[in-house]
Amino acid sequence: MGLFDKLFPKEEKPAVVVETAPCAHGLLTPRWDSVADMGKEERATSFVCEACREEFSPQEARALHESMAERLPVGDS
User: Fold this and answer.
1) How far apart are CA 72 and CA 51, in angstroms?
2) Count of C-beta atoms within a 10 Å radius of residue 47
3) Of 67, 66, 62, 70, which is closest to residue 30 (Cα–Cα)?
4) d(CA 25, CA 58)
5) Are residues 71 and 57 in contact, defined by beta-carbon separation less than 8 angstroms?
6) What confidence score (pLDDT) does residue 73 get?
7) Which residues of the chain have pLDDT under 50?
8) 3-state secondary structure labels for all residues of the chain
């Protein structure tokens, strides 16, 4: 312990735990293996969530798209 540390001891701060809401995967971007297939969403080989960067298969992306209304928060009007 140096002189500076003896003169100005550090205060220990409690650890802060931050909980984040799970990603709603609201914006999925398609990815293709072939340039010829680009632009044809039905030929996409995977989908990537733009918010959390998680990758999904076409079947998983379809299920997420179908359940989007249940997962996205609704504002109070």
Assistant:
1) 13
2) 23
3) 62
4) 14
5) no
6) 65
7) none
8) CCHHHHHCCCCCCCCCCCCCCCCCCCCEEEECCCHHHCCCHHHCCEEEECCCCCEECHHHHHHHHHCHHHHCCCCCC
| Phi, psi values for residue 4, rounded to 5° | -60, -40
Using CA of residue 28, residue 33, residue 37, residue 38, what is the dihedral sign?
A: positive
Yes or no: say if 47 and 58 are a contact pair by the CB < 8 Å rule: yes
What's the token pair of residue 2? 């140096």
> How far is it, in rounded angstroms, from Cα 7 to Cα 19?
36
64/46 Cα distance (integer angstroms): 13
